[in-house]
Amino acid sequence: MTPSETHTTIDLSRICQLQEKPQPFEPGEPLFWTDPHIAKQMLASHLDPTVDGASRRPETIERSPNWIATSVGLRPGACILDLGCGPGLYAERLAKAGFQVTGVDFSQNSIDYAIAQAREKKLPIQYRCQNYLELDDQALFSAALLIYGDICPLSPEQRAKLLANVRTALKPGGCFILDVTTPRLRQKYGLKNGWYAAGQGFWKPGPHLVLEQGFAYPDDLFLDQYIVIEGDGKISDYRNWFQEYTPETIRADLAAGGFEIESLWGDLTGMPYTPDSEWIGIVARKSA
Fold it and tell me: pLDDT tens-digit profile of 154-183?
């Protein structure tokens, strides 16, 4: 070994421990979406028009706002709450259609971008960096949006809290529009099982190794796990949980949260729902 060469010790016992199937919704790295490097990668994914990454492709996003407004009878001037708004891709289109939009997202990086875009385009959108599990608005909005499966990674306790917050934020008779994945989507892509090395990538800015694992649980719960090992031997464990739904299970969850489903769709552009749909688009209304 030359003087410039060093050896890195990797804790294999720790890796083996992390590869054991965790309990449902057992967390990995806490609040990793606020990590400065990952936040930059997420914003880039939101803005990439070639893939359905952190956001859907622009052609899909273009169709959703008009369909959403029409399907629930919203008129220009109505107040809309866009939860998990990211860089404002839906909020901008809704604002251009004459709606009063408030966007909420946990990523300061995405909110800063959205604010800059709204200012440049002279759109009167209100943005704030906030965890929507801590939402405290009361009877301000005619409709709330939660688009691209944002409810699916939440634990049952978190889902109950979110639904309570949305219900409180809506005016009497207000609408909650969201979409969720179905088991068909998981059947299409399967469970992750592989590895790759990168000089830089989504998870880390420097050299690292990624071990990908997927786990299936009863009642259509799935975990995508990414064990990331950096050049200095540091190990991080990133977990994305996904609760997938059928029409019956999403109806039950929403009913428990005080919402009645008015219509189910194959997405939020008005495609009909079928048993083969990979997504369910939901229009629900706050119960009396």
Answer: 999 999 999 999 999 999 999 999 999 999
Strands, E assignment, the chain: 79-83, 100-105, 126-129, 141-146, 170-181, 193-198, 208-217, 221-230, 235-243, 259-265, 279-286
Taking the model in full, what pTM does it have? 0.94
**What are the φ/ψ torsions at residue 248 (nearest 5 degrees)?**
-70, -40
274 phi and psi, to 5 degrees? -135, 165
| CA nearest neighbour of 244 among 207, 270, 214, 272 | 214
Torsion sign, CA atoms 21, 23, 29, 32: positive
157: phi then psi, degrees, rounded to nearest 5: -65, -40
Tokens describing residue 55: 């956001």
The token duo for 180 is 């969720």
Topology of the domain covering 48-181+245-286: Rossmann fold (3.40.50)
Residues 233/169, Cβ–Cβ less than 8 Å: no
Q: Please, are residues 124 and 87 in contact by the beta-carbon 8 Å criterion? A: no
What SS3 class is residue 51?
Answer: coil
Residue-range domain boundaries for the chain: 12-30+185-242, 48-181+245-286
